[in-house]
């Protein structure tokens, strides 16, 4: 059975509006006769990682359409960070494996960390859809299901990173993906910078092997 031979099923996604714009530096002339300065690399640029599994399948994880927009917090508190996140995660399977793929998933989200918790329990809230509800403690015991992550609460300790999955899509063929657009994120009770780093994880399973491929974005600050 080839890649397209296993059952077609997947989790639905809820996307919301609002996309942050990334600014890309452009080259300037530094003097008479001088050539243009090379443009700075886009820290939000698309990335992909490909690996060949022991069964002969090429598995690719793709991170695309990433945006992180930091905004002034509505409560005007010096202990609050607020912003909007966008991301697309995609998984691809190609090649001629020797064993049929029986299952696969694509997971996309952000790792979020606070430098120092100045309260008894820092709260991190994420809203991606009006119907999604989830509350978890550290370490996270649940993952986001078919409805987009909404109102995620977790306790962060100094030096701790919270892994918040915005969605999981079943890879029911050679290609699948999920997109979250304009996700609202806030962190309360944090002293110092709040860093966010995107990730996409693609996992496949055969009767013989399980394989996982990850791709990460550049850290950004709220």
From TrEMBL:
Q: What is this protein called?
A: Uncharacterized protein
What lineage does the source organism belong to? Bacteria, Bacillati, Actinomycetota, Actinomycetes, Mycobacteriales
**What organism is recorded for this protein?**
Gordonia soli NBRC 108243
Q: Which Pfam families does UniProt cross-reference here?
A: MspA (PF09203)
Q: Which InterPro entries match?
A: Leukocidin/porin_MspA_sf, Porin_fam_mycobact-type
Alphabetical keyword list: Signal
- Taxonomically, the superkingdom here is Bacteria
């Amino acid at each position: 059975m080839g890649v397209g031979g296993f059952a077609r099923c997947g989790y639905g996604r809820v996307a919301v509006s609002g996309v942050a714009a990334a600014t890309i530096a452009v080259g300037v002339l530094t003097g008479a006769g001088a050539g243009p300065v090379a443009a700075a690399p886009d820290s939000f640029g698309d990335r992909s990682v490909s690996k060949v599994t022991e069964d002969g399948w090429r598995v690719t994880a793709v991170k695309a359409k990433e945006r992180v927009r930091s905004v002034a917090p509505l409560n005007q508190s010096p202990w609050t960070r607020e912003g909007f996140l966008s991301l697309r995660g995609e998984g691809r399977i190609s090649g001629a494996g020797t064993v049929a793929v029986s299952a696969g998933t694509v997971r996309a989200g952000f790792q979020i960390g606070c430098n120092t918790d100045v309260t008894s329990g820092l709260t991190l809230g994420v809203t991606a859809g009006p119907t999604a509800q989830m509350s978890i403690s550290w370490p996270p015991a649940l993952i986001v299901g078919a409805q987009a992550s909404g109102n995620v609460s977790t306790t962060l300790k100094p030096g701790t990173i919270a892994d918040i999955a915005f969605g999981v899509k079943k890879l029911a063929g050679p290609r699948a993906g999920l997109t979250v657009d304009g996700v609202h994120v806030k962190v309360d009770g944090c002293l110092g910078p709040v860093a966010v780093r995107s990730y996409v994880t693609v996992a496949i399973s055969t009767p013989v092997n399980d394989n996982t491929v990850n791709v990460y974005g550049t850290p950004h600050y709220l």
